[in-house]
Amino acid sequence: MSMTENAAEDVDLLIIGAGPAGMAAAIEACELGIDTLVVDEKFHPGGQIYAGLAGGAAFDRSVLGRDYLIGKNLIDRFQACGARTRYGAFVWDMTPDNTAYISTDGTSRMIRARHAIVATGALERPFAFEGWTLPGVITAGGAQLLLKTSAVVPQEPVVLAGSGPLLLLLATQYIACGVSVAAILDTTPAGNRLGALRHFARFIPTALAAKGLAMLWKLRAGGVPILSGVEDIAALGSARVEAVRYRRGGEEYRLPASCLIVHQGIESETRLLRAVNVEHRWDNVSRSWLPVCDDFGRTAIPGVSVAGDGRAVLGAQAAPLSGRLAAIDAARALGRIDVETRDRLTRPVRAQLGKASRGRGFVDTLFAPSPTSCDRLPGEALACRCEEVTAKRVREEATRSAANINSVKSRLRCGMGPCQGRYCETTVRELLLRHSGSTAAEIGLLRIRPPIKPVGVEEIIALGVTELPPEARIPGVLPR
Amino acid sequence: MRTSYDAIVIGAGIHGCSVAMQLSMRKLRVLVIEKTYPGRHASGVNAGSVHHIPRLTPELPLAELTLRMWHDIGELVDGEDCGYRQVGHLKIAETEDDVAPMNGTAEGVARHCNIEEIHLDREALFDREPGLSRNVAAGIFSPECGYAQPARAVHAFRAKAERLGAVFLNETCVVGLRRSGPDWLVDTSAGPFDAPMVVNCAGAWGSEVASWVGDHVTLRTVALMMSVLAPMKPVMETVIGLTRRLLSIKQFENGTVVIGGGYRGTPDLVTGRTMLDYTRLGYNLRAATEVYPALARGRVVRCWSGIEGISPDALPIIGPSASEDGIWHSFAYSTHGFYLGPAAGRVLAEAMTGERPAVSLEPFHIGRFNSPDIGAA
Lengths: 480, 377
Fold this sequence. Notes:
heterodimer; A: alpha/beta; FAD/NAD(P)-binding domain; Arc Repressor Mutant, subunit A; disordered N terminus; B: FAD/NAD(P)-binding domain; D-Amino Acid Oxidase, Chain A, domain 2; 2 domains; six-stranded mixed beta sheet
């Protein structure tokens, strides 16, 4: 067998993702003299949070707020740190021997890393409801990305619906851009407020609290109605969204809308970690599976660490700190520093991380997804858009045989489409949890079937041998 | 739950579900014990091909029976068609040199079973499959063959077995077998269960179960890789295979294309996980595009591999234990078990209940390996 010219490239440290965690990890690693390669699927560093700061349409970004603009500082330091970078490069598989398969410009390469830091951030929690697949319905993260990178704002009337700080932040940014927000339909369950109260004392002195109050003040000054206790959001329209229907206090209402922006919090993106068989644990507050790792972000898979929101959603202040921890520990794993040095270097970072995480308890509890979030999902609504599987079919299947999500996937095909479950896994899991009587551990998480995102046939061919492997040769005449 | 049954089936793959259904149809009370969930391994994740070429001679009568059963699969499992589509199977000789061996194979098959085969010359090949590369010489078309949806088939068999009273115990490991008077005690992670008959349908793990009762065979474990391409415009109609190199391609009704044939990843029997080998997978895709150039424009959306056990002579093990009464085997299907699912379950149930099996199980008896010399890999 002869290999093609596609030999693996070797690197000491591979950092996947150039968001706050990945950038900070790279800066730290380079300071410790480690040969570092950073890859990101976007064309500029900054991740989702600082998208557009390092490149993108020219416009006055001050409308996006101070917390956004300070990202430039980190980006500048990252771009000067000496790490090699590769943009427009997505990692579509990683094997437990730490080989990453990376696609750039339609060509895939293998990168063999002695250590890898997965800093793939978070994804918006899928939010299925009646009409969620209609054109004109977008997520808050997607809408914000358009604003940050291309100065695109939606056509009025704009309605925001769901729960979580991003929804409020986006509304303030729209106000600053002169876009009027017809209403914020807040679906945060009333019970969450009560639960969050016990975290309130710790929350109130934090920067997070100050930021939250400032946002609420801006929204009030901007005259945006925030309607709490909203349930049963539905997007109505034939070819695209024309109106939003919702219930509040037992009454049904309708609002005209050209654009419905929805959000239900974010959750760690761990597909690459799952691909390398990193163990995950169920977190009942965020109602998501989180990678099991130590304080430095090191997983049980040799040479694989995790940093940033992919480890647990802690936000933009904490992400660079967990990135630095992972990088310093990687230096130890690579033999650059000893354990004592690592501990000395990480002590202040760990303290800062503890401080940056303060107040999260309140936010996490207040905006925690509800275990009953899918109860009112109509049977005909799609749980999986790739394979067009309705909520009704998932509910029926939940009680029929094993409720393991991979078994349900094989029966209904939900999760088999090109999105690899990004848009349906959470919805399907919540439906199974409510209707099967099984626990999250019994339901489990979707097994990854690479590529994590679709890859051209010819890209994989180029990774292959060009001559027939001997075991694939069929002997002469059969049967004898 | 009750702990005594007429028969206990170990493993809920296609064969465990099929024999459980057939035994339930014969009014036996059946328990199926599954270590994860039905169809978790090869049964649920194979490429779904239903064809008899190139099977070894001793398997052809069973192949013929199973094809007939696939033709009426909806009747067998109460209206669920298992996604079976009789689109035909086309075996293609790529060079003139390959034509004579291909015809030899077809003649051999025709001597042992009565399944229609149509010889196609180059022009007839293109008439049938206009998307084929020009680099082909001839083919043999088997109009009675096709493909099914493996996971749907497993669950159709399981569901009918359950409707007839069979009990499925998922996420439960069998840890041992003991005699208890005339019965067998099956020790599991959920406690012991007993029955006079136990069927070993443990797939790649079947040799371990067999060894508990003194039947020894060494299986070669492989993880066969498959890829699915995102939906494409129609590229092909039939299920495609080659005569000289491993390759299997088919396009489903939703436009997705499944490419496989037998290229190997790395299995891990302990965790049940597999690792892909992109050097081989890349060749697999290369071979596919050499036969259907349009596939080069496709996008791969998922790749995986399923764990299979291959017996020393590449024939399955079906029938009674060579060592103990009341123990029956149905495993080691050697990478072509899925299509045999309907018939194997039926003939085994017939043998177990004292009926005359529609096809002799003699060639599949585990006793053929019980000399350690043969069994050694």
